[in-house]
Amino acid sequence: MGKLFARLYDPIMKPLEKIKFNSIRRELLSHATGQVLEIGSGTGVNFPYYKHVDCVDAIEPNQQMIQQAKKNIASTNNVPITIYQATAEQLPFERNVFDSVVSTLVFCTIPDPLQALEEIRRVSKPGAPILFFEHVRMKQPLLAQAQDMLTPAWKNICDGCHLNRDIVSFLGQAGLQVECINPHYKGLFLMIKCTNPK
């Protein structure tokens, strides 16, 4: 299923990118500087948006996604990008390495999001911006219930994606300091800027 999802990801996402996601990504990644960690880089859709960074270390557990992402490295404006096959819950990096962390549309699929956030805190420097663009469980009760009902089947189709995950509550549990939250599409998607307060 992971191979099929990797093959379908770009054709499904390209229309959404053109509508709005590309401008959201551009805005979010404009806040990334220095040595950047990208969580779950997928097919490398963020790579062209890195403009003012020194380098990017990207992690991705899906080998098929990594193969597709390598084709996108060529469009990165000479930003050095290294992709590691790894999970967010066990990052292969030392403490206090990264100046910025980026995660876009990936925390829905991470099996243990709290552990992943604790790992992000460990490897990022004090005060580092931690930048998210994620879809979340909606506040409107009927829509939230629909997300709950659809999630079991959706996870099987979309590589473990939870339609109803509340990323904001995990941020607080992990001790990240939320600076601002910008909702999109009536709150289905959130752009979130945090800092590592350690």
From TrEMBL:
Domain Methyltransferase type intervals: 37-131
Keywords: Methyltransferase, Transferase
BP terms from Gene Ontology: methylation
Domain of life: Bacteria
Pfam families registered for this protein in UniProt: Methyltransf_11
A GO molecular function held by the record: methyltransferase activity
Protein name, entry field: Class I SAM-dependent methyltransferase
